[in-house]
Automatic annotation (TrEMBL):
Cited PANTHER family: AUTOPHAGY-RELATED PROTEIN 22 (PTHR23519)
Keyword Transmembrane in record: yes
Transmembrane segments: 12-34, 54-76, 83-101, 107-127, 148-169, 181-201, 237-261, 267-290, 302-320, 326-348, 360-379, 391-410
Organism annotation: Psychrobacillus insolitus
Protein name: UMF1 family MFS transporter
InterPro entries to which the protein is assigned, alphabetical: Atg22-like (IPR024671), ATG22/LtaA_families (IPR050495), MFS_dom (IPR020846), MFS_trans_sf (IPR036259)
Membrane protein topology class: Multi-pass membrane protein
Cellular localisation: Cell membrane
MF annotations from Gene Ontology: transmembrane transporter activity
């Protein structure tokens, strides 16, 4: 196998950099910090959770609407890097600013978090789009999987450092309040994200682009309109996106609901953090393994494997009773979580017209964002209807089966095609 090039490594290293935000800010430290701040200010637990939910819904909706529009404009010569830099700077700056907001100002914390999240998720639209500029169709699965593998490893390092500081401060080993320890975690995340993003800005240029013809904003809206008008010319792309919508919804729901499952089994916060940490470690080599196996068996076949594993996860979760069961479930998820995400990205990257990559990755991110809504609703409705949360988890099997059936209808991408338009 040919060694990874400087461009491929520089692109993949951004996953190593930005995943620190996903784990430390989105999943672990910030939610606990915010909840503590809101409680200290007299906000009820239910209200503070609702406000956080509204905040996530707001920035998710904003990005879902803006993604294809910004992506279309970014397809013009020299625009992709500018948009990427803008959202990256927004994300890093406001992540760092979280450390300087007064602890009792929970509302300002949410505002700052919203802007940081807009920056992080917005930058990912253009980062994903850059995959067509750094490698060939034949190596896309390897490069995408390498990115996810590095992301899992990279995210655990600043996370582990942050957790150690927080735990040492909480038991009095170091003369630091828990509040300031969390603030240090925000700064560590921002610095980590900034430093390891330097290679992608230095070494990855925009190779595929469209020449400007008049005002790029006006032309971008016109191109977006033409895409919808000619949607039948992109049948394969949108058929894959529909399949992706269903199965990634199941993946995202299991990730977001995992701590709730663990809490129901009586796991402490510390135990849950340990499970989360180990899951990240196990997921890294499996993400890379999926990429290598995709080169031998094809991405589509490995996506079948990943979806099948998640169907097993849903069935196993139905019989979940002990903490040992939870660990088994977490490790099963770890084997396929990164692989299914990485191969979805590379498979889609093969299908998109290279010079329109950002426009279509904007759609890719829309489907991923809106998919995050349906799964939790299915779990909530089924759990309330039956009175048992394990029935709610089991109901996600439907999403994976639908995704699997639709994916089976998606033609294999043509390796030698530059436009990859399917007109049948």
């Amino acid at each position: 196998m040919k060694k990874f090039t400087k461009k491929e490594n520089s692109w993949a290293l951004y996953d190593w950099a930005s995943s620190a935000y996903s784990l430390t800010i989105t999943t672990a430290v910030f939610p606990l910090f915010y909840k503590s701040s809101a409680t200290n200010a007299g906000v009820s637990a239910s209200d503070s959770t609702a406000y956080l939910g509204y905040t996530i819904a707001i920035f998710t909706f904003i990005l879902a609407v803006l993604g294809p529009i910004l992506g279309t404009i970014a397809d013009y010569r020299g625009m992709k890097k500018k948009f990427f830099l803008f959202f990256f700077t927004l994300g890093v700056t406001f992540t760092a600013l979280l450390a300087f907001i007064p602890f009792d100002n929970w509302l300002l914390l949410l505002v700052c978090y919203t802007v940081a999240a807009l920056g992080a998720t917005g930058a990912n639209v253009f980062y994903d789009g850059f995959i067509v500029d750094v490698t060939s169709n034949e190596r896309m699965h390897l490069v995408s999987s390498r990115g996810f593998g590095l992301g899992y490893i990279g995210s655990t390092i600043p996370f582990l450092i942050s957790i150690i500081i927080i735990l040492l401060s909480s038991n009095g080993t170091i003369a630091l309040s828990s509040t300031n320890a969390s603030r240090i975690a925000f700064l560590i995340t921002a610095i980590w994200w900034l430093l390891f993003s330097i290679p992608i800005f230095k070494n990855v240029p925009q190779i595929h682009f469209i020449e400007r013809d008049g005002n790029p904003v006006i032309q971008g809206f016109k191109r977006l309109g033409n895409t919808f008008k000619e949607i039948r010319k992109y049948r394969t792309l949108f058929l894959f996106l529909i399949a992706y919508f269903f199965y990634i919804d199941g993946v995202g729901t299991i990730i977001s609901m995992s701590t709730a499952y663990g809490t129901d089994l009586g796991l402490s916060a510390t135990s849950l953090l340990i499970v989360l940490f180990v899951t990240q470690i196990v997921a890294a080599p499996f993400a890379i393994l999926y990429g290598k196996l995709a080169g031998k068996f094809s991405e589509k076949k490995m996506l079948y494997v990943g979806i099948s594993v998640y169907i097993i996860v849903c069935i196993y979760a139905f019989f979940l009773e002990t903490i040992v069961d939870f660990w088994i479930l977490a490790m099963l998820v770890a084997t396929s979580q990164g692989g299914i995400q990485a191969l979805s990205r590379s498979y889609f990257g093969k299908l998109v017209p290279k010079e329109n990559a950002n426009e279509f990755f904007g759609f890719y991110n829309i489907f991923g964002k809106f998919a995050a809504i349906m799964g939790p609703l299915i779990v909530a409705f089924t759990s309330q209807l039956t009175g048992k949360s394990n029935y709610g988890v089991f109901s996600l099997v439907v999403l994976f089966i639908i995704g699997l059936i639709i994916l089976s209808r998606v033609p294999e991408p043509k390796e030698t095609s530059t436009m990859n338009r399917i007109t049948n």
